[in-house]
Structures are given as structure tokens and as C-alpha cells.
Design brief:
The chain is an alpha/beta fold and about 325 residues long. It contains ten helices and seven strands. Helix content is about 50%, strand content about 10%.
Amino acid sequence: MTIKKVSIVVPAYNEETSLKVLVDELNVFLNDFEYDYEVIFVDDGSKDNSFNVLKDAAIENPKFKVVRLRRNFGQSAALLAAIDTSTGDVIVPLDADLQNDPRDIPKLLNLISEGYDLVSGWRKHRQDRALDRKFPSMVANKIISKVSGINLHDYGCSLKAYRKEILSGVRLYGELHRFLPILASWNGAKVAEIAVNHKPRVFGESKYGLSRTYKVVLDLIVLKFLSDFSTKPIYFFGGFSIFSFFAAFAMTSWATYLKIFKGIDLDATPLLIFAAVFVIVSVQLLLMGILADLIMRTYFESQDKKIYQVRESVNVEEKQTANSR
């Protein structure tokens, strides 16, 4: 792939001191940068002087762009705002806390040039506290890799490089920004990983801690559901519905056996009550599956979305491809 323009995107929240240093680092680094570039800073509703720092930087360097959000929407929303604003064919997110090294960017771009769609940084020698940062991250990375089938050492590293086209249609909610490699792979992305530098935090405090873990777990559950059942939710709900129905049938059969062959009065066992509950749950799950299927069909058909994505075609007219199902 020939890279024409690189968009470096930097979400920031209350990083006034770090941003002053980062702007200087980027100006030095980009002075000899071999690609056309733009740097998009997103002020995610900072309460300090971050916006004014970025505004001054943009006045001095017209290739620095600043987007200021009305309030703090979170890193996923800030990153999405930067992606939507970007005009480059390759997007490189960078943390504002100075822990990512801009000098690693060419290494990522080299792999993009070799044909990869997404190159993820790996903080191999991570400079963070072990107990509440490194260890939970290590466990989370193993779980995410196992569930998603995409084996990366470090999903949490912000420093990545994406071909913009593979992010087309991707929408980020919650903590889904860390799952961008998975979302991109759904679009057929070819993913690579490379070790990058990681520097200790010098200014301020990290915005993340153990309290973030449960959000990541919940987002992973949603992602797994979308991955396996987004176009066939009836299979998910229907599977649990069938299980509940057979559980009710087994309890009813066992209660009948106890009544006939053991002489145990049905009032003496709660089996029939449990069976009735499982029957109700079974019906509810089946109806939820049908409703989810209808919503899914409405979602795709009302927006003319396809349940597939074409990487490339030969001798196929554009209109013919658009109308195919």
C-alpha cells in the first residue's frame, strides 16, 4: 500500500501539562516525517486549560487540528470524533499522556506499507504499576484473545495504525475503542502486532484503574454476541429457549416418576413449580429471539446494509455488486 497521508489522532482529557510537552515532541518528530500528515487533537470536555494549549498549537502549526467536545464523552467517543474528522488514508491514535513514543509511528507505517490493514502496538516493557495496571491488563488480554480468536499481547495499547477504509462503518460505544482490532477484523482486516516503547507517566494521574474492568467485561460480552449472532439472534435466544423447555420437560417427567413409582405427593416437591417457571422462561426467550431477529432485519434492510463485505472484485459493475444479496 502507498501511504499518501497520515492522520495522527490524540484524544485528551485534562492533560494540560502533558499536552505542552507532546506538542513540542510532535513538532520535532514531524519535522522530518516522510509522509503528508495532520494531527487531530480532541479535547474530551477537559476542565483544565487543555483546549487553550491545543488552540495555540493549532495557530502555530496549521496541520494541527483541534476538536472540542461539549462535555466528557469518554475515550471511545473522542477517538470516533477524531476518526470522523480525519482526512488521511492511515490513522494513528496516540495517547496524550506522553507514555506513547511518536518515534514508533514509522515502524507501524512500514508494516501498513507491506500490506497489513491494522498494526497494533505492544507495550512489551510496560512502565506502569504491576498490581492494578499490568496484571489486570495481562489477564484481560488473554481473555479477549481467547474469546475473539485474535491473539494480541496488548489490546490496551492506544498506539496503533489503521487503514482508514477498514474502519468504515465502525461505531464505538462504551469501552469498545480497545476492541478496534476485533471490529476491524470483521471488515476483513489483516492484523499485525509490533513491540513499541512505553514511557512512565510524568504528569497527572491515570484516568483508568480496576474500576474500568467490569466495563470491559460487559463490552466483551456484547462484542461476542455481535460477532456470533448479530445476523441470527434467534439462534442465541432460541438455544436457551430449547434448553429451558427440555429442563421443564425433565422436571415434569421426574415429578411424574416420583408420583407413580415412589408414591410421593406432588405437593411435597417443588419440581412442578420449577418446571412451570422454565416453561415461561422458554416462551419468553423464544419471543425475544423473534423480536431480535425482526429488529436485525429492520436494521439491515432499512439502511440498505449488507450482511457481507466485499474486499475487491474483477469485471463486476458497481451497480450489480450493490444490488446483490
